[in-house]
Specification:
Elements: E1 2-5, E2 17-24, E3 31-34, H1 37-46, E4 50-59, E5 63-70, E6 75-79, H2 82-88, E7 95-96, E8 104-106, E9 110-117, E10 123-127, H3 130-135, E11 142-150, E12 160-170, E13 182-195, E14 201-213
Parallel strand pairs: 12-14
Antiparallel strand pairs: 1-12, 2-3, 2-4, 5-6, 5-7, 5-8, 9-10, 9-11, 13-14
């Protein structure tokens, strides 16, 4: 039996925009950008990246933004320039990321600036923060101007949706639709939090109960007792049964 209770509805994300996440790798110094909440979650929880949150809102259509990856340099490049993609992937060591498909789209009135640092394996950084763009040259970065555009700053943090799920299983692993006739032998709780591209969180709390099928077994036991001594008889030879009593023990 699986039940879901305590569900708080979240606000539905707009179909015309998506949030862009920024992550930082303290080992390589690289910043990674992605609209994929799952990629953001996996990299920040299992691969050593630090999540820096949503940095801008991008349209879901418009001028395509491509992500390239250089395995020798261990960094990524973001561009809307198809010629740049063609040149860099033709013998310069760069590969098309995301299977060559657009990673997200450029469009809107807010410029997204790109800077380049030759001393950091040719890393590129994107930012909508004009102050960050103006300060980074002091640390060896070269300004490359506005390379794409955003709809605006990220929306206010989304709502939190909580799901409480109860799963009943037999001790053999089968899902139970009813626990009648079973005895609960253990219980465990697991909590998983996921975040979509709009920052809306879903917290799923799953309680798993393990049940054992109760089986009734009947045994008939006969005890012969000497009524004079009260001792149990191993043999009734030479004795006559005087009376008989029956008792039920559960």
């Amino acid at each position: 039996m699986l039940t879901v209770i305590g569900l708080q509805q979240s606000v539905k994300a707009s179909a015309t925009e998506q949030g862009i996440y920024r992550l930082y790798n303290p080992i390589t110094g690289e910043h990674l950008f992605t609209p994929d909440a799952n990629e953001n979650h996996v990299l920040s929880t299992t691969a050593g990246w630090k999540a820096e949150g949503l940095v801008w809102e991008a349209p879901t259509s418009g001028q395509a933004v491509y992500r390239l990856y250089n395995p020798a340099l261990h960094n990524h490049l973001y561009t809307t320039d198809k010629n740049e993609v063609k040149v860099l992937t033709s013998g310069s060591g760069w590969q098309k990321d995301n299977n060559g498909k657009p990673l997200f789209y450029s469009g809107g009135g807010m410029p997204v600036y790109r800077v380049y640092n030759a001393k950091l394996n040719g890393q590129h950084l994107l930012t909508i923060d004009k102050n960050e763009y103006n300060i980074l040259p002091q640390y060896g970065w070269q300004q490359e101007g506005a390379k794409l555009y955003a709809l605006g700053k990220p929306s206010t943090a989304g709502t939190t949706q909580t799901k409480r799920v109860t799963v009943n299983k037999s001790d053999k692993g089968a899902i139970l639709s009813s626990t009648t006739g079973y005895v609960k032998i253990s219980s465990g709780v697991n909590t998983v939090t996921s975040t979509d591209s709009k920052g809306n969180k879903t917290v799923t709390i799953t309680t798993t109960n393990i049940w054992h099928k109760a089986v009734a077994t009947q045994k008939t036991v006969t005890i012969n007792i000497n009524e004079v001594t009260g001792q149990t008889l191993l043999s009734t030879a030479g004795f006559t049964k005087d009376y008989q009593t029956t008792s039920l023990v559960k």
